[in-house]
Amino acid sequence: MTETLPIPTWGLQFKPSVARFARLLDELGMADRFRWLETQMYGAEGLLELAHSRKYLELLRRVTTEDSEVVREQDTPLNRRTVLEAEQTVWQAVSAAHWAWREKQTTLVLGGGFHHARPSREAGFCILNGLAVAALDLLENHGVERIAILDTDAHAGDGTAEILAEDPRVLKISIHQDPRTLYPRWGEPRQAGHGAGEGCTVNIPLAKGAGWNEFCSALVRVAWSTIAEFNPQILFRTGGADMHRSDPLSDLTLNNCDFHGLGRWIRYLCDEAGLLSVEFLASGYNEYVQASSWLAYLDGRFGLGLGDTAFEDFALEHRKWRNRTAALEQTFLELRKALGWKWECLRELSLEAESKSA
Asked: How far, in Å, CA of 211 to CA of 270, rounded?
């Protein structure tokens, strides 16, 4: 990579995960590989209303002005601090999307996205959905016609899908752990959007214990084939480190070498398609591996020069689960049934076809 990677900065000081990542960059002497952008502030009400209901935004405004607290979800309290931080992450997302579209350069959002936030409710540590706001802003105000959102977080991107369920201009793809075994208990292939947006939500659940082989098959055989058929003008890729085998809130079994491989795949596929992207790095609930997992992904994605051998998980060498082929075949079958009518690339989808072509 010859150019520095732009990152909007406003609000980063509030996030312990970002602080750990920044310390790791300093320790490795890599801070100069990133260029910190001044985050712009935008008219809050106008943009936030693209994705969230007026009644919900009035609640958030009341919480901040009265310095009160509302707890409807135990893991996502609404108070002045949490709401203001949420607003700042939205402006990070919007600033990054503006920069990417205007300058035709990939940008990175650290600690942003918040894909569980729904139109009228907070959920899963998420209060405002920066992904949806940034996407709708580009569509409504900047001449973009088609956006793809690829969510590789262990938890399904239910809030983003709900906000954009009827919008055919946005392809929403989520690769995640089987929602029957993990929050948010949503994200089956049959949940594919509705109205004009039916078929534009693609859920790819992976069995509990799935690792890199299953994840890579889902990425290449389903996600990227569908993105190529959709032909977006810009890609939002969101995900963090909670797919790591040591993460306490999920049961997938990727390691840091796999995160590096994921980054390489995304780089290759974006380069092949000439596709502009915004990277949203968030999540990861094991503080001992989060920063290194983020860096492993970024090294694969942008060629920072560390190499995949720098990210071997020697202490976690053995995978807890191995054979998930039958579960993935069932997922592919459900995707064919739910979405074959919409996407030509999914009509013959199967692991058997993959093995024959190998």
From this structure: 23
